[in-house]
Amino acid sequence: MKEFTKERTIKMLIEKKEEFQRTLDNSKKKFKEDVNRDYHAMKTHTADMNLASTINNGHRIKTLAKIMVKFDLAMERVNNGTYGICTECEKEIHPDRLLQVPFTEYCITCKKQKELKKTSSYAT
Ligand SMILES: [Zn+2]
To answer: For residue 60, how many C-alpha atoms fall within 13 Å in the half-sphere facing its CB?
Structure first.
């Protein structure tokens, strides 16, 4: 990666990770509030239960938690010099993609292929 020096990449990863961490913290806070509200609504039979939103938020927290792990893995790849290289086809990942999804381990081609596989396995 010519565009990214190691220092810049680490700085970018830390900044983005903090951003995600804040979102994760907010989601967790909201999840707690949601659960309390749903529990209260269940006990009092009031209509303000919103399980769908609670469940959605739960999924969001799971996804965000996974992303946090990906950030740590990306940081490891920076340290061993493999950051920005697709773990699937070992080609360079486009810098624009790294700026958008700094924790990614796949180039856009491999990512698309993986998503395609995912979708077709859902369909069967
Ligand atoms: Zn690839």
So the answer is: 17
